[in-house]
Predict the structure of Sodium/hydrogen exchanger.
Amino acid sequence: MEKLKKYVSVKDEDQFYHQGAVELLIFNFLLILTILTIWLFKNHRVRFLHETGGAMLYGLVMGLIIQYVTKSSDVESGTVYECEKLKSGPSTLLINITDQVYEYQYKREISHHNVNGHQGNPMLQKMTFDPSIFFNILLPPIIFHAGYSLKKRHFFRNLGSILTYAFLGTAISCIVIGLIMYGFVKAMVHLGQLKQWEFHFTDCLFFGSLMSATDPVTVLAIFHELHVDTDLYTLLFGESVLNDAVAIVLTHSISIYSPKKNPNAFDAAAFFQSVGNFLGIFAGSFAMGSSYAVVTALISFMHLTKFTKLCEFPMLETGLFFLLSWSAFLSAEAAGLTGIVAVLFCGVTQAHYTYNNLSLDSKMRTKQLFEFMNFLAENVIFCYMGLALFTFQNHIFNPLFIFGAFVAVFVARASNIYPLSFLLNLGRKQKIPRNFQHMMMFSGLRGAIAFALAIRDTDSQPKQMMFTTALLIVFFTVWVFGGGTAPMLTWLQIRVGVDPDEDLKAKAVSQSASNLDKNTTKAESAWLFRIWYGFDHKYLKPILTHAGPPLTATLPQWCNPVARLLTSPSAYGDQLKDGDTDYIINNDELTETYESSVQVPVPSQDSTGSIQATGKEDIHEGDLGLGGYKLQLQQAAGQPQMNSLA
Amino acid sequence: MEKLKKYVSVKDEDQFYHQGAVELLIFNFLLILTILTIWLFKNHRVRFLHETGGAMLYGLVMGLIIQYVTKSSDVESGTVYECEKLKSGPSTLLINITDQVYEYQYKREISHHNVNGHQGNPMLQKMTFDPSIFFNILLPPIIFHAGYSLKKRHFFRNLGSILTYAFLGTAISCIVIGLIMYGFVKAMVHLGQLKQWEFHFTDCLFFGSLMSATDPVTVLAIFHELHVDTDLYTLLFGESVLNDAVAIVLTHSISIYSPKKNPNAFDAAAFFQSVGNFLGIFAGSFAMGSSYAVVTALISFMHLTKFTKLCEFPMLETGLFFLLSWSAFLSAEAAGLTGIVAVLFCGVTQAHYTYNNLSLDSKMRTKQLFEFMNFLAENVIFCYMGLALFTFQNHIFNPLFIFGAFVAVFVARASNIYPLSFLLNLGRKQKIPRNFQHMMMFSGLRGAIAFALAIRDTDSQPKQMMFTTALLIVFFTVWVFGGGTAPMLTWLQIRVGVDPDEDLKAKAVSQSASNLDKNTTKAESAWLFRIWYGFDHKYLKPILTHAGPPLTATLPQWCNPVARLLTSPSAYGDQLKDGDTDYIINNDELTETYESSVQVPVPSQDSTGSIQATGKEDIHEGDLGLGGYKLQLQQAAGQPQMNSLA
């Protein structure tokens, strides 16, 4: 007896010591497998299965193994205990069992029908980690990276179309899915598969909004590898980045809407409240993200007389950059806004301002760090999605609902892309051709965001049904559409092997040849953005970065004392060009040089790009290292440098 | 009523959405503050408070704020509920409270006397995170970085002394602390502050072993900044790195020892079991860590005919390197070994073999990535230690115990350093001078490992007393000794501003001048290590890396077919030097060139080094970028290159 007790105590301690190690090891193992597979695929130029699809497949197999190999050891887990003494669920529960006090931590509220799902395997329960890890740790690097690596030049050229697809398109998609699903739900109620009061129209809209977040990471990776037409790439990338933000805020607004009195009736007040909520959260998150980026830019720009600049300490600079960007996300979440939107715009703003102030070392460090985090986080998420199919305990597979969802998703994508493209083509100088529209239709993959939104709430039966269905749609679209991208490109006869810079110049030349009037170029960028560009170039860039014309030249005479104080000494070399067209072109060149020296890559893929590309990168970075150092020396010696040389 | 319910549900959901964001934000904020402080200190050349001390201070203040600003909202947390139906604590508990089922997750077993500590503030509870996060996520990067950045040349020169301090010294320290504490515990029992049966001699030894883990991160940072004598630096760094591993395994072995029958009597069988356990776990962890590193080396070395090498894809290479090294830690933990020891030797082996196979891009990426993770993890740990003083709910401040512990720690350090230095000086050609011994005595700071070992188990009252005491010793040593390092160096007249390479050469020259016999140089490295070096250079390096002589030259004639298969084409350029002394010097040069081109830095500090150092680094890296690229080109063109040029 004595011996036994000792043995048990040692065993307990051991378990405590190795807590969490096994679960992390499983994820590590899956990721290692995925990386080795990517390597294999790169060698054989396999394109029918992308790394994300592979990661998901491995996750699936691992989930299957865990479910059938590990045994349900915890017989008492499924029993529900009555507790009359408590009024509500405290966050920590102390329970006295046979003279030992055990501490239990509140996890969540669950419905009665889910209880048997918990007669469970503790291993499976451990593998299904907290959705808050998803939101606070795995998603931010991916979204930030998307914002940080946005190709601004092409993005702004197509801004109108991108905004239309992202805002209007997502709204259309959400409503269409909601309506179709409502039809199917009615049918299910009719067939007796569902009770009337369980599934409201707002639930359908909720499902619609979460399924509207597209994630064409697979498609974009292949586009990048094959150098597909830049406009198509930009439209798709821009749409998917912004569309995530819109879908998340929309989901939140709809979940707040729910008029409890008669959930199926339209409540105008609640509706407008939701719309206001949507706008408020979007704007607030945007402001939060940008202001963190501006603070970072200001800190990295500071040159107080007694201080060495922060860029002399690349590690501190990188650390600050990383922490402030993450704080943008966390602050937004803590303030009740949407972190994803905040971190996206934080990324865009950081790339626009802060990046220019960073030391060369930090530029490389931040680029590689975010690339690496994006790569890992993305593969963890896809592994996890694979795992979830078997480790999640409360799946509800309803064939009718699943069929309905598949139909709804494709109909919604079609009624987003085709009508909007038609409308946009009325206004666009350079039309979106038919084959681009088909390709965009085909690229409506669902991924991490849809999954993350669905897993946030899996308490009620409708929500569980939604989660299961969303998971299946993710599997299908990633494997089938992701795998079919390369054949589809050939079939639709879309140009590949395009050099983005050459492409833009060629288009500009052909345009100016066909129309010599300067106004065409002007019309290309909308008036609102020309005003913004002017303001940005004349005032913000000089204040926040070392680039741009000196403030003394752009501000009125009487502001000179202030202007001199705020302008970086290195800005005086640059002279303000007059003429609007000239300026816009100049601005394009700026972003171009920025991009070629930074090589901010497309999410996740540049990193593992083809052999030739990597070779080229090495030379570039070597050059950058030396050339940049010389530049730094010049700066230190007080020589003003031309911005166009940087 | 309807409205209220709706409001509550929204509020609940909101809380769910932002779960964890506030806590992470607090840590982010503390880290940002710390970075800004480091920047400030760098500018004013402040050395009386190091960044780790600063991080701890901020943590302390934040803990104070959280405790006094946030309120205890959860009145039911402190109540213990009786549960007769349960036999043992299941991992998940489902409780039915007023018709709602709540899910609770098992956290830990607690003693009756701790219960009132939980009448608590949910915010404080959230801030005290799981020790498993400490062990699985925060510690591995720090320890790996220490191994990865070990200056092998100086390390092996002083290996005998380092091993003596680390193994024998830690054992002495553990026993001395144990004995002194046992005396104090007896006194406390006598004074009625403690009950006899609560605190055994093994508990005292347990405390002794956990307090024996020294962590002179602050001292080493200042040493590095001031370029203190390399031998002193190496002795201290080597001792502290290995000593952590020894202390951890020792703590584990002692916790297993506990002969339950008469805990104060000596039980020979249990003792030898513990010793065997110690050796087994140490050897097993060593083997586990090294084998993961060897696997990484083999994968990165592979050049199958149909395959492009992994180094063509820097991101995959970095990812694999990172994941396999982390897996070494996790596998060891999962197998019941010690992850810290595994990841330490994994780091050493990775630096020795895998590093040579990496592409230039990956060399830089891995170096910067591990540096960055080390920097963040270290500061998070020190912030957390500061926080723990106020957020931890079950502190037991016993003045006598604390006083005893302070005495014990200093007596133990003295009886470790002085007698062992005396013994070592009998055998060493180059004596450890008196002032070095004083400095080593002074540098016996306690830090992350002691804290981590103490926080692992805070269930019983003795363990809580130990935790509180360990925390106070960490505070005292980091602030007082860490802050006093620079004055102490001056006072002890220890050389600063030494160039490590020059230093070694000068010493070698003076030695060969005073004693022309080759045997002196031989005697310098112990025979065991010369054999190992020979084996490593002739067989392992050629098999695992591109460096070293071709196997065809080192293996016997009849092995030629196998040898040809295993040798990298680039190895043929290197010829085996004959003569043992020549070889050892050559080997030193190898490591030297490796170090100067890599600049693997001392943990955490190189990164934030002084201005001059950073400037120099930039040039080096620029050079490396171009020079390295040329080398790669040569390799690609099939030109064999001399290893000494690399």
User: Anything to note?
Assistant: Confidence is low (pLDDT under 50) at residues 1-16, 514-524, 571-646 of chain B. Residues 268-301 of chain B form the longest helix (34 residues). The domain at 131-499 of chain B is CATH 1.20.1530.20 (Na+/H+ antiporter like fold).
